[in-house]
Design a protein that fits this description.
It contains 5 helices and 10 strands, in the order βββααβαββββααββ. The protein has 202 residues and is an alpha+beta fold. It folds into 2 domains: 54 residues, no CATH class; 109 residues, Fumarylacetoacetate hydrolase, domain 2 (Alpha-Beta Complex), CATH 3.90.850.10. The strands form 3 sheets. It has a 4-stranded antiparallel beta sheet, with no helix packed on it. A 4-stranded mixed beta sheet has the order 6-9-8-7. A two-stranded antiparallel ribbon has the order 4-5. It is globular, with a radius of gyration of 18 Å.
Length: 202
């Protein structure tokens, strides 16, 4: 099962994707926002699907699919966390994680057009795995960290490399442009709240 949001940009409603079909759950769920995840919304959705899957309205196949998460408070990214990518760009492996934020106005749906920044000469893209944090977290231990992950989403990190690396300042200059980050629907882990085992390649 995957969480989706559908409809025109700025007016998306919540749905689910199951076995090749998209279903509308907006009668039962307000949106996939912070209150939804923080208040055990995934467990509620699981029970809803089990009890009413046959009665849920189907979404037309040509309906636009948007970002699966509504208004995330922040998008925190880690730069140069993939050793091979660092080597191919001749960048030193950082001793401390390089953190940067992407504006939430950069987020669009999986099939939406990306806006290339004005006068861009080095627009680039990278497919990333993003973690959706399901509840407020602060100073969480490594052993408990995955308990806070609600699901995963593929994230297309679009960058303007000249703005980012050659024109000074901060990485945000080349990575936080409006409508520059597309996202695929959230894949809810098997067992709903049990985390996937991820293999990190060095």
């Amino acid at each position: 099962m995957k969480l989706i949001r559908f409809g025109e940009m700025g007016r998306e409603r919540p749905g689910v994707h199951i076995a090749g079909t998209n279903y509308n759950v907006s009668t039962f769920v307000n949106d996939y926002d912070e209150p939804f995840f923080a208040n055990n919304g995934l467990q509620y959705l699981k029970q809803l699907i089990e009890q009413q899957i046959s009665t849920l309205p189907k979404i037309a196949e040509d309906t636009r699919i948007g970002c699966p998460v509504a208004k995330p408070s922040k998008v925190v990214c880690i730069g140069l966390n993939y050793a091979k990518h660092a080597k191919e760009t001749n960048a030193a492996i950082p001793k401390e994680p390089i953190l940067f934020l992407k504006s939430t106005t950069a987020i669009v749906g999986p099939n939406d057009k990306i806006i290339i920044p004005k006068d861009s000469v080095k627009t680039d893209w990278e497919v990333e795995l993003a973690f959706v944090i399901g509840k407020k977290a602060s100073y969480v231990s490594e052993e408990e960290a995955m308990d806070y992950v609600a699901g995963y989403v593929l994230h297309n990190d679009v960058s303007e490399r000249e703005y980012q690396l050659e024109r000074g300042g901060t990485w945000d200059k080349g990575k936080g442009c409006d409508i520059s980050t597309s996202t695929l629907p959230i894949a809810v882990p098997s067992g709903w709240l049990h985390p996937l085992k991820l293999c990190v390649q060095n």
